[in-house]
Structure formats: structure tokens, C-alpha cells
Specification:
This protein has helices at residues 28-35, 93-105, 115-122, 128-139, 143-153, 156-180, 191-220, 234-242, 285-300, 316-324, 364-377, 390-411, 416-434, 440-448; strands at 6-9, 16-24, 36-38, 51-58, 64-73, 84-91, 109-110, 222-227, 260-266, 269-275, 303-309, 330-335, 352-355. It has 454 residues and is an alpha/beta fold. Strand 11, helix 10 (316-324) and strand 12 (330-335) form a beta-alpha-beta unit. Guanosine-5'-diphosphate is lined by residues 228, 230-236, 249-251, 255-256, 278, 335-336, 338-339, 357-359.
């Protein structure tokens, strides 16, 4: 256990039903008792774990700061694994700050960012991947992102890593035994068996790494641009997907002169949606600037919604757009289906085509379904194990490299010692992933990114 007893406001600063001040450490209960008095007269130190007391928090003159409920957790059965008291008062910036100040006067030190979770990790309550998932849960911006983090919190990454680690440890132990007793006929000690185990680890590491991009798309959103020549209905579609008037809609061509951006959840998919200026040839300097930006957006987009007006024939601007999107992941939207059809669908080529009337909202569900379908084909489900940050990916990449090196060493007939060194490197990288073997610097770096109070 750590020597300092720490405290922080655990709820967001602002007006709310309740605000919670969390105290953790050996002296948490003693500190809380100095500023909290139960209406029943019962002392907090007489309470068992998970027991609450209703009373008041008072200042150094005995004046009441607020009514409060103090909830006691006894080590090791708490979030941090230490004694913890959570004091719930009325939510409000002033009250929570006053109570925190009082708790600090009574002997607690102000917690640094992520210090509660860091203590939970250091006290063996969580491994590093689970600790990181806490941050993912707090910052989740959609259901799928929360689900991924919940999976990591429940130990999915730890379990998959453990699985690879066990195979590597088995390989390392067998290699050592084989080196010591090369002439003994011990079952499973053969180069074929080492090779099989390393192959299995290789496949599993690759699979884990491949989950990272999906996780990033789910957490941070897919960059999606709405493109098309002026007046085809891009802004109307943007507004339809946003459920509000984010873009200005007029029948004057060139109204959207810059890129308008918004984050929208379409089913399980989060889109970083950009409504771009209509792409066409223009002499207007400001409009040209918008067109250049739109072209840039097409280049960077992971998904394009290319819009065409079904009530007008395909012209040279449309054809130019079709040419520029050939290699992109794209849904073609044939808009204005409420008007008499003129455009021939066959001219739009190989793309998935969704017909809508953005003005009337017809085809909206089909468009949402298409976005989900197209994005998910290359996506795995949030129910799978997903690596949730760059650090985790880096650890598994290093493990994969070391496993590859071990396989190469085995194939090239290098000494088993050389193979063993590579296997040890792979083990070290995975132990760093779960935090079983991690330097203080790495540990500090990880928890620094947490908010204070978590
Ligand atoms: P943008 O320049 O491509 O962004 O096009 P806007 O969204 O500004 O729309 C241009 C014009 O087309 C406006 O007058 C819209 O009301 C109209 N419009 C957009 N969608 C539809 C549609 O589905 N049907 C019809 N009839 N008009 C539409």
C-alpha cells in the first residue's frame, strides 16, 4: 500500500444531483472522520466495508458545509485495493470544492491524474489493459466504443494475451529442456513442435494487431466526406444524417464554400462527416479554395458518399467525380427521387447505389443500412477482442517481430539458444502489454493521461 492518503473530486465539475469526493489510502477513514459526523453519532471507523452513513460534512469551525453520505470500503475490497471513503454531497462546483479542501486540511493529499486507477493496478486489482479500458469507457462516444472498452475491462485482451504467453512459455521451457537433454526422447520436444507453437503464436499476434484499426474506427469515427457537384443535395443529406440544420441549404450553386463537419452516429458506426463544397470548375477564388479543400477531403476520407442528381443527366463534373472515386470505399447516392428520373443508373458504374429523396427523407433507412453494411464488411464486431490504444498495438507488434525472428532462427538451423532469446523477447513484450513487467516510466506515462479523480 502507498503511504499517502489521496483525495479528489470523482464526478465532473458542474451542477448535478450529487458530487462525490473520493479518499483512498491507509488513513482514508481517519481523514473522513475528521470532517464528517453521522447524524446517528456512529463513527465511520466502526463501519464495515460497503457500509454507508448519513450525516454532515463540517469545516474547521464545526460549521456544516453540506449534508452527505459517506460510503466506506475496506482494503482490499475497494477499487484501489486500499481503504476508501466516498463522500457524496450535493453536486455543484462550490460545494464539492469546499468539501475537497476540507478533506485535504484533514490530512489527505490531492490525487494526481489517474492515481486511483494507478493504485488499483499497483495493488493488483487490474492489469494494465483493464486499467486502460477504464479510460476508454469514460471517453466512449458511442455504444460500440463502450462495448469494446467493457470487453477489455472484463479481461478479453488479458485472456488472449495469456493464451499466447502460455504457448511462448511452453516453447521457452521446452527449448531449455531440449538444450539440456538433446539425446533424450522426450515427447513434444522436437523442432516440428516448436515450429507449430511459434506458428500458432504468430497467427494470434497478427489477429490481435489487425483489430487495432477497427477499434480506432469505432472509437474515433470513420472519416466520411459527402461529395458531388453543386446543388445535387449534399447539404440536405448532411442535415438529414445529422438530424439538424448543420449545413446551409439553398438552390444557389456554391453555397457551401468551406467544409462543414459534424460527428454523427449512424447505427453502430460513428462518422466524422464532412459536407464539402461542390466539386466543379470555377473562377471564383473563394469557391476554388473550397473545391481544393473538398478534393483533399476525398483523398483523406475512409468512406465517400458521392451524390448525384437523379433528375438531371450526367454531365462532365459528375463524370470527373466518378473518375476520382474509383479506388475509394464509396456509396453512390442518387438524390431527388421525388422528381422525374433522368439520370441512367448504369452510367454510375460498379458502386452500391442508394436512391433517396433527401428533401422528403425517403430512403434514409436504406442509406443508414448501406453505411453500416459497407463499413462493417472490413470490421469485426465489438464483441471481439480489440486492442484499444497505440501502446498495446506496439507491444503486440514487438511480440510478433520476435516470434518471426524465432521462426526464422529455427528454420535457418541456428542454435536453440538463439531461438530462445527471440522467444524471451516476445514474452517480455507481452508481459509489458499486461503490465506484469513494465518500467515505472511507462506506468507513469499511461496514468498521466487519466483525469484527476479516476
Ligand atoms: P448542395 O449544393 O449539393 O449542398 O445542395 P443543397 O443541399 O444545398 O440542395 C440544393 C437544392 O436542391 C436545394 O434547393 C434543396 O432544397 C434541393 N434538394 C435537395 N435534396 C432534394 C431532394 O431530395 N428533392 C428535391 N426535389 N430537391 C432537393
Amino acid at each position: 500500500m502507498s503511504e499517502r492518503t489521496i483525495a479528489a473530486i470523482a464526478t465532473p465539475l458542474g451542477e448535478g444531483g450529487i458530487g462525490v469526493i473520493r479518499i483512498s489510502g491507509d488513513d482514508a477513514i481517519t481523514v473522513a472522520e475528521k470532517c464528517f459526523a453521522a447524524f446517528s453519532g456512529e463513527m465511520l471507523s466502526s463501519l464495515g466495508g460497503y457500509q454507508a452513513s448519513y450525516g454532515r460534512v463540517f469545516d474547521k469551525n464545526g460549521e456544516t458545509l453540506d449534508d452527505a453520505v459517506a460510503l466506506v470500503f475496506r482494503a482490499p475490497k475497494s477499487y484501489t485495493g486500499e481503504n476508501v471513503v466516498e463522500i457524496s454531497v450535493h453536486g455543484g462546483t462550490v460545494i464539492t470544492r469546499q468539501v475537497l479542501r476540507r478533506v485535504l486540511e484533514c490530512g489527505a493529499a490531492l490525487a494526481t491524474g489517474g492515481e486511483f486507477t494507478k493504485r488499483a493496478f499497483l495493488n493488483g486489482k487490474l492489469d494494465l489493459t483493464k486499467a486502460e479500458s477504464v479510460m476508454g469507457l469514460i471517453s466512449a462516444r458511442n455504444d460500440a466504443a463502450a462495448k469494446i472498452s467493457r470487453g477489455a475491462r472484463e479481461g478479453r485482451i488479458s485472456r488472449d494475451t495469456e493464451d499466447i504467453l502460455n504457448k511462448l512459455l511452453e516453447t521457452a521451457a521446452s527449448l531449455a529442456a531440449f538444450a539440456d537433454y538433446p539425446d533424450e526422447d522426450i515427447p513434444n520436444l522436437s523442432e516440428e513442435n516448436f515450429s507449430r507453437l511459434l506458428d500458432e503464436c504468430h497467427v494470434k499476434c497478427e489477429k490481435l494487431i489487425s483489430t487495432y484499426d477497427t477499434g480506432r474506427a469505432i472509437r474515433e469515427g470513420i472519416n466520411c466526406a459527402i461529395v458531388g457537384k453543386p446543388n445535387v443535395g449534399k447539404s440536405t443529406i448532411m442535415n438529414l444524417l445529422c438530424g439538424s440544420d448543420r449545413s446551409i441549404v439553398t438552390d444557389i450553386a456554391g453555397t457551401t464554400r468551406d467544409v462543414v463537419e459534424n460527428v454523427v452516429n449512424v447505427g453502430d458506426i460513428m462518422l466524422n462527416l464532412a459536407d464539402t463544397a461542390g466539386i466543379h470548375t470555377t473562377d471564383d477564388t473563394v469557391e476554388k479554395f473550397g473545391v481544393d479543400k473538398a478534393i483533399q477531403k476525398i483523398k483523406n476520407a475512409e468512406l465517400l458518399l458521392a451524390v448525384f442528381d437523379s433528375s438531371a443527366p450526367l454531365d462532365s463534373d459528375d463524370k470527373q467525380l466518378l473518375d476520382s472515386i474509383q479506388d475509394k470505399k464509396c456509396i453512390v447516392i442518387l438524390n431527388k427521387t421525388d422528381l422525374a428520373p433522368v439520370l441512367n443508373k448504369q452510367d454510375l458504374g460498379k458502386f452500391e447505389i442508394i436512391e433517396i429523396s433527401a428533401r422528403q427523407g425517403d430512403g434514409y433507412n436504406e442509406l443508414c443500412a448501406a453505411i453500416n453494411r459497407v463499413c462493417k464488411t472490413e470490421m469485426l464486431s465489438p464483441d471481439d477482442t480489440v486492442l484499444i490504444n497505440e501502446r498495446q498495438r506496439d507491444c503486440v507488434c514487438r511480440a510478433l517481430q520476435a516470434v518471426s525472428a524465432a521462426r526464422d532462427a529455427l528454420c535457418c538451423g541456428m542454435t536453440l539458444d538463439a531461438v530462445g532469446v527471440c522467444v524471451d523477447d516476445a514474452i517480455a513484450a507481452l508481459l509489458e502489454l499486461t503490465g506484469k513487467r513494465v518500467t515505472n516510466e511507462v506506468c507513469d506515462e499511461i496514468f498521466k493521461r487519466f483525469c484527476v479523480g479516476k
